């Protein structure tokens, strides 16, 4: 069953990134990357490093990593959107290895300095396999950097999202895109209200959604309603998924009060729990 759900989720995202391949403006910016990983990491940390991104999608953050001076980037994208990834990152192709595989197939012994999973782990029903593969692919002292959905601070949103996803995740692309178009004016009004009122998700609306173009705001809404599987992690669950797979010195940051950014380090002698 988990494999069926994962296969559907991969297909959903492949369709999404093929339909919406662009990464213009803030959506594909260094500023958004740093907003995601500060204060734990920044783009400056990858200069001269060998890195991997699991679930690279359309390549927006691969481009950020390349522009930041990463020595080599291994970009994993399991869906049909791998062709979009190649097209969008063609200017840096001499420094990129493309793999059309899932995160659990990240090559062991690659001696990466960093592995990034940005908005990916919460869509994997069995996250341990991908985290263990990241551990095996990193050099000793290398770091796994993850951004995932958080449960804390999201109760009102989760109620609404759960109701909507009960039918939107079954919609074909055109129907979902049309539904997002109808929903967007209500999101825009809520975003405007967040400028003045301390509403749920107000920091996220002001700092992440507002800088996006209207087209990319609709992509973010689509992204929330599209996948077959999504998990919202508590702080304890987020920490445990790294620690039980061997990572130490796990640091977490509650980003804008609604999601978790975390970084774990591969120790010299720590091994995953079996």
Q: How would you describe this structure to a colleague?
A:
- The longest helix is centred in the last third of the chain and has 21 residues, at about 175-195.
- This protein is globular.
- The protein has 10 helices and 7 strands.
- It starts with a helix and ends in an 8-residue tail after the last strand.
- It has 2 domains: about 1-150 and about 230-265, Vaccinia Virus protein VP39 (Rossmann fold, 3-Layer(aba) Sandwich), CATH 3.40.50; about 155-225, no CATH class.
- Mean pLDDT is about 95; it is low at about 270-274.
- The chain is of the alpha/beta class.
- It has helices spanning about 1-20, 30-35, 60-65, 80-90, 125-135, 155-170, 175-195, 200-210, 215-225, 235-245, and strands at about 50-55, 70-75, 95-100, 110-120, 140-150, 245-255, 260-265.
- Strands 3-2-1-4-5-7-6 form a 7-stranded mixed β-sheet, sandwiched between helices.
- Helix 7 packs across helix 9 (about 215-225).
Count of the domains: 2
Which CATH top level class of the largest domain fits? Answer: Alpha Beta
- What structural class should be given to the helix and strand makeup? alpha/beta
Average pLDDT number: 94
Overview features:
274 residues, Rossmann fold, 2 domains, disordered C terminus
